[in-house]
From TrEMBL:
Stated name of the protein: Uncharacterized protein
């Protein structure tokens, strides 16, 4: 039987992969048919809408992630980085860019992974925030 934590983690990973494909401009047909509903996914993952999630400070979001199991933090940070990065590309929202940069940096710290695409995005975000 699948637990709530496992289900949430699966949702996070699916959202992360979907956003990654959208960021790379390689959306799958099924993804395009589903039309990512950020609010529904945010409600399933964080029990609040995307608007509520995006209105929280970085510190508040980090506190929410810290309430989860430590082994899952990297998945949350990668998903949040992708989420804010993807949304910042459309409206060049400085707050979203700053959050994406922070969550990507936290992802690299917690995962211990050397991810060149993430590092490139961080550098792109730093330039945009200057």
């Amino acid at each position: 039987m699948i637990t709530d934590k496992e289900f949430t983690l699966r949702l996070i990973r699916q959202l992360t992969q979907a956003l990654e494909k959208l960021i790379l401009d390689k959306p799958e047909e099924s993804l395009m048919q589903k039309e990512l509903d950020f609010d529904t996914l945010m409600r399933d993952i964080f029990k609040m809408s995307f608007t509520e999630v995006s209105s929280k400070t970085k510190e508040e979001m980090i506190a929410i992630v810290n309430e989860r199991q430590e082994r899952d933090h990297k998945d949350y940070y990668e998903m949040l980085g992708n989420l804010f990065y993807f949304n910042s590309r459309h409206d060049h929202n400085k707050d979203f860019q700053d959050k994406a940069k922070t969550f990507y940096e936290l992802y690299l710290q917690t995962s211990g992974i050397f991810a060149l695409p993430i590092i490139n995005r961080i550098n792109e975000l730093k330039k945009a925030l200057e």
